[in-house]
Write a structure and sequence with these properties.
Elements: H1 8-18, H2 31-43, H3 56-68, E1 72-74, H4 76-81, E2 92-96, H5 108-119, E3 124-128, H6 149-164, E4 173-178, H7 184-189, E5 200-206, H8 208-216, E6 219-223, E7 230-235, H9 236-250, E8 254-257, H10 258-263, E9 275-276, E10 283-284, E11 289-290, E12 292-296, E13 301-303, E14 322-324, H11 326-346, H12 354-363, E15 367-371, H13 373-380, H14 387-415
Helix pairs in contact: 2-3, 5-6, 11-14
EC number: 1.17.4.1
Protein name: Vitamin B12-dependent ribonucleotide reductase
Organism: Candidatus Collierbacteria bacterium CG10_big_fil_rev_8_21_14_0_10_44_9
């Protein structure tokens, strides 16, 4: 069975990356067979008490149709590992790192072990090194001097490089350091020399306090991570300029806005957000994973006329005779949300790191986003980057968010709410969630059905 939506090159890449292999390492599946296997494994999660009355066969057929038509594409580890010995379906994780060499469960070298076991399954890992004491700080037990956060990032990087030499998927990792950490300048420059720290993306965790200091040209306080006390002061704009200069030169560091993320944290009673997965699509709490999938907007456009049939042309709302297929998009969002929620149950978590499964099931976090936006805009006659293009993107994302939340509520009615709901912004006894406000005004009629938040 040939997937007509894939050209020859795309099909070859899909087989090379995601097919099961024989004992000699040769791919043994076609693209359609990869999707059949993926659909079957994820649909099998319907066979438990959380299914809501749907048979796994019925759901499997719906999942396969959605994947086969390329309306939705799950993350790579789901397609690569579904039905395998590892069975680890999440792309990435975040692991916490404490300022402790080896005594605690989240100590530097305990977490390194957990990270290596996770990387073996193909999952990338994000870390915040913000709790590591700064370079040259006194070590109370030995009276020696600490080597600092960057030194341990280099230890992790070397270990990941060694593991990567064994074959398989190259290690992917993210190192985050908050902007108030005394080692921040060394961190910002740590990848300036080519070939240094090759297995990590690096990002600075920016705070509102820092951005205010930059705006006002004030000095900014660097703090000791253990007690929050002032370590020293630094000119905020000079530090900001170093971040910009190195980002321009190397493409790194990136920036992550810590306070903004935590204002939007749906489970603030469980943790503060400190880090993201390696590609920064999603903020994650300690030991959480990113269960990701993308809606292909290119496949959610409908033609409003029949080519070659005289008199059949009906001008589209956006011109060019094409329009966003909102009904189809709502159907795909609903099914994709179910697919990703099933992945949480179908996943075979790393048994040696039980915290991974505990964290995933406690919050049941998923990540649903889009690809093909520029294709959709081209087909519907909207200029990418224009004010109208920004509005269309905003309307699409609000629509997706709405129908994904409706699907989640419907699943919760049957499967039960996520275990960590009490104390969250969705707590039935104290709801703090509020209707999202669009970043741009919605003035244009793109044919979108009304949304009733």
């Amino acid at each position: 069975m040939k997937i007509t939506k894939l050209n020859k090159n795309a099909a070859a890449i899909m087989v090379n990356r995601y097919s099961l292999r024989d004992d000699e390492g040769h791919p043994v599946e076609s693209p359609a067979e990869i999707l059949m296997r993926t659909s079957r494994v994820v649909a099998e999660a319907e066979n438990n008490c959380r299914s809501g009355g749907s048979s796994s066969l019925e759901v499997r057929e719906k999942f396969f149709e959605m994947l086969y038509e390329m309306r939705f594409v799950p993350n790579g580890r789901t397609m690569a590992n579904a039905g395998t010995k590892y069975g680890q379906l999440a792309n990435c994780f975040v692991l916490p790192v404490d300022d402790d060499l080896g005594k605690g469960t989240d100590s530097i070298f305990s977490v390194l072990r957990k990270a290596i076991l996770t990387l073996q399954t193909g999952g990338g890992v994000g870390f915040s090194f913000g709790r590591i004491r700064p370079k040259d700080a006194t070590i109370a037990t030995t009276k020696g001097r600490a080597t600092g956060a960057v030194s341990f990032i280099k230890v992790y990087d070397t270990a990941f490089w060694v593991i990567g030499q064994g074959g398989g998927r190259r290690s992917a990792a993210m190192a985050v350091l908050p902007v108030w950490h005394p080692d921040i300048l060394e961190f910002v420059k740590c990848k300036s020399r080519e070939g240094s720290i090759t297995n990590f993306n690096i990002s600075v965790g920016i705070t509102d306090e820092f951005m205010k200091a930059v705006k006002n040209d004030d000095d900014f306080t660097l703090r000791h991570p253990e007690n929050g006390e002032m370590y020293r002061m630094t000119p905020a704009r000079e530090l900001f300029d170093e971040i910009v200069k190195n980002a321009y030169k190397n493409g790194e560091p990136g920036v992550l806005f810590l306070d903004t993320a935590n204002r939007e944290n749906p489970v603030p009673h469980l943790y503060r957000l400190e880090a993201t997965n390696p590609c920064a699509e999603q903020w994650l709490g300690p030991y959480e994973n990113c269960c990701l999938g993308s809606l292909n907007l290119r496949e959610h456009v409908k033609r409003l006329y029949t080519p070659g049939v005289k008199g059949s042309h009906t001008p589209g709302v956006l011109g060019k005779g094409y329009q966003v297929d909102w009904e189809k998009l709502a159907e795909t969002v609903t099914l994709a949300t179910r697919f990703l929620d099933n992945v949480v149950d179908a996943n075979k978590y790393v048994s040696a790191v039980p915290e991974l499964e505990e964290a995933a099931r406690r919050v049941r976090r998923i990540g649903l986003s889009v690809m093909g936006l520029s294709d959709m805009m081209y087909m519907t006659g909207v200029r990418y980057g224009s004010s109208k293009g920004q509005e269309l993107a905003s309307q699409i994302m609000e629509f997706i968010r709405y129908y994904s939340m409706v699907a989640s509520i419907d699943l919760a009615r049957v499967r039960g709410a996520f275990p960590g709901i009490n104390g969250s912004i969705y707590d039935p006894q104290d709801v703090k969630w509020s209707v999202p406000k669009p970043l741009v005004a919605h003035k244009t009629d793109f044919g979108r059905p009304p949304i009733d938040w």
